[in-house]
Amino acid sequence: MLFSSVEFLFIFLPATIAGYAVFARLFSVRSATVWLIAASLFFYAYWDAALLTLLLGSIVFNFVCGKRLFAERSRALLWAGLCFNVGLLAYFKYAGFFVENVEAALDMEIADLDIVLPLAISFFTFQQIAYLADIYQGKAVEPDFFSYVLFVSFFPQLISGPIVHHSEMMPQFANKERRWMRRDLIVPALGFLVMGLYKKVVLADGVAPIADQVFDASIAGVPSMMDAWIGTLAYTFQIYFDFSAYSDMAIGIALLFGIRLPLNFNSPYRAVNIIDFWRRWHMTLSRFIRDYIYIPLGGRRKGGARRYSNLLIAMLIGGLWHGAGWTFIVWGGLHGVYLIANHLFRRIYPVREKQAAWSAWTGRVLTLLAVMIAWVFFRSDDLWSASRMLQGMFGMVTGEPVLSGTRTIFWVGLLLVIVWFLPNSWQVFHRFNPVLVDRSAAASLTDCKAASAIGSKAIMVPLGLAMAVVSILVVIDRGSDTQRFIYMIF
Amino acid sequence: MTGLAQTSASFGGKAAVFLLSTAVSVFIAEWSVRLALPAYDPAGHVVWQTHPRAGTVLGQPGTTARQVKNSGDYNVSVRFNRHGFRDRQDVSTGHDKDMYVVGDSFAFGWGVEEGERFSSVLARLRNERVFNLAASLNVDGYEKLFPYAESLGAKFGRVVLSLNMIDDVKRYAVEKVETRPSPVIAPTRNGLDISLMAVKNFLLRESAFYFLMSQSLNHLQPLRRFLINVGIIKTINEISSALPDRGAISVTADRLAALDQRYDLTVLIIPSRGLWVGARRSETREVHNRVVRALQKRGVTVIDPLPELEKGDNPLQYHFRNDGHWNPRGHWLIGEVLQNALSGNK
Q1: Does B7 touch chain A (CB under 8 A)?
Q2: Greatest Cα pair distance in chain B
Q3: Contact assessment for residue B46 and residue B66, using Cβ atoms and an 8 Å cutoff
Q4: Fold of B43-183+241-345
Q5: pLDDT exceeds 90 at position A155
Q6: pTM of the full predicted structure?
Q7: CB A63 within 8 A of CB A145
C-alpha cells in the first residue's frame, strides 16, 4: 500500500485518522496509541503478512534486550543485541550478494539462496541499533512497551524513513496530552501531504520514463552523449522528487496525529559542496552514519589519514546500506572520495563567513555534477552499464540516440529551475514549526527568498488546490499502475 | 477615509495576487498533467496534415501518437509509417495479388490497436497481405489515395473501399473540395449551446488537464447523469447528422462507379448508428438501402454487413459506448464478414 495509492489515500489513511480520533476522544491517548500500532502493523502486513513476524520479533527482542541493558550496562549484552540486528541485515540483505561473489571468485556453486528482502529492514534495524547503543552509553530513557513499538513501527516513517531517533520520538509517543488534528498543524500537515503527493505522482513518476529509457538502453550499448546527460539528469531529479515526496508525505501524515518527524530533506541540490550536500540529503541517515559509525570508528580524533579512512569506511557502509550490490558500494565509495577531497580543499581554502555569489554557484554546479556522476552507479543495473553510461556522457564512444524531441530537455530544464530556485516544503511551512530540525539546517532557511511569498494564503490556496486536484486525478487515472518509491527497496 | 482607502487598496492587491496565482495554478495544472500523463498531452495526439505529394490529409509520416477518448472508451497507440499511413507494411511493396483497404476513420481503426482493425483481421483470416490506406477522409480523399499509392510503387489488385453512411454520402462538388466533418460533436440548437460546445471542444483538443478532468468526471456515473440532464454532456445518441438526399446518393454512387472502372473495387458499407438510435431510424434505414441499391445498380460490388451486425439484436455491442466507431469486437466481425463475402465471390 503506497502513500500515493488510491487505497492508502482514500481508505487506509481516513480510516486510521477516524479510528484514532474515536479512541482519543472516547477513551484515552493510550488507547489511540494502541490503535495506531495496530494500523501500522496492518500497513506493514499489507505488503507481506509473513514478514510481520520478523518485524514483531525484532521489536520484541530489542525491547527486551534494551530493558536488560537499562538494568545492567553489560558490554556482552550490547554486543548480543548488535549481533542480532546486524545478523538480521546480513542474512536477509547481504547473504545472497556474498554467496554470489564467493561463487564467482571460486568459480563454483555453493548455495542457491532465495531470500526475500523484508520491507524496511534497513530502516527499523538502524533505529534499533541506535537505541541499544544509546542505552549502553546512558543516553536513553527507558520507554514503555507501546511507545517503543510505535517508535519502530509508526507507519508514516516505517517503510522509507526518516530514520527516527528514540530521543526525539519516544517523548512524543509517551505524551498523554498529545492531540490529533491540532488546528495549528492542519495547514502544514495537508500542505506537506499535497506537496509530497504532487512531487511523487507528477514530478518523480513523470520524469522517470526519460531516465528509464536511457538507463535501459545502456544495458545493451552506449547511449549518445546528449541522451546520457539527459537520462542522468532525469534520474537525478526522479530520485530527488521521489525521496523528497516520501519525506514530505511522512511528515504530513505524522502531523495529522500530532507527531513531528525530523527534517530529512533540505533542497540538497542547492548544496554548495559535497559536505553541504550530505547535510541536506537523507539527513537522518547522515546523522546515523556520523553518530553510530564515523564517530565510533574514531571520527577525526585520530589524525588526518585515519580521519579520511574513517570517512571512506563510513560512506562505503552507507552505500552498502542502500543495497547489496557493487554499484551501491562504488556509489558510497565515490561519495567518500568526494568528501575527502572536499575536506582537503577546505584545509587549503578555509570556509569564509560569507561566500560570494559566483563562488556559491560554481560550487553548486560542481556539486550537482559530482552527485550526478555518482547517481549513474546508483541507478545502473551493474558496473558495466554504468561504465557505458559514463562513456556516453564523456563522449568516449558515440552511441545511438534513444530520446526524441526537445520535450525531454524542456522537462529536465524545468525541474532544474524548481530544485534550484523554488523553496522546499519546509521553507514554505516553517512558520508552523512542522518538523524537528537542528541548528545547521535552520541556517539554510534563508537560502530561498521566494519562500515567504509562496507561503502566503493568496498564492498557497490556489496553488495547493491545483496541486491536490492534479495529483488526485493522476492517482485515480493510474489506478493500480502506481510506481513504488525508490527508497522502499532499501 | 485614509483607513478605508488603505483597506481597499490592500484588498485589491490581495485579490490581484489571488487571481494571478489562480491563473498560474491552472497553467501549472495543465503542464503537470502533460508531464505525468503524456498520453493526454495534445501534442502527442493524432494530427492530420495535408500531405504535399498525396494532395490529401494523412498522418504525420514517421510519428507515433495516441488516440485517447475522455470517456475512457479507448487509449491506443497510432504509428504512422513514412508515407503517412497507419500500416506496418510499406505500400510501395504492394503487388496486384495483395489486397488494399481504403477508407475513413472506421477503416483506419479509430480507437483500436492496429492489429485489431478489420484489415488486420482480414489479413490473418486470408493469410495474405492487406495494405491499409485509410485516413480521416471522404470520397474526394479516397480518390487521391490511389494515384498517391501508385506513385510510391503500389500495384493495385483487389480494393475494399469502406463507405461511411454517416458522412461519406453527399453532393460532392465538381471542384473537389476536401472537407472533413469534426469527429466530435456537431453544433446544435442555440447560440449558448454552440459556444459551450465550442469551448468544450477547444479544451478537449488543447488541454490535457481538461481532458483528464472530464475523463474522471465521466467515470462518476451520478455526476455524469446530472451533467447529461443539464445539457453539459451530450451523449453519442443525441448527435444527429443530416441524412443524404437522392441527389447526394446519386453523385456518390457515380463517383464510386467511376473508380470501379479503374480498380477492382468492393464497397464495404459502414452502417450509420442512426439505424438503431435516435428519432429517424426508419428514414436512415431507407437511405441505407437506397445507397446499396444505387451502387449495385451501377455494377459496383457491395458488401453490406448490416444483417450480421443485427443478428444478435444488439448491434451497438460492436461500437464503443460513447464513440460511434467500432470497437475491437466490431472490427473482428467485419473482418469475418469480409472474409466470407470475398471467399464467396472468388
Answers
A1: no
A2: 95
A3: yes
A4: Rossmann fold (3.40.50)
A5: yes
A6: 0.82
A7: yes
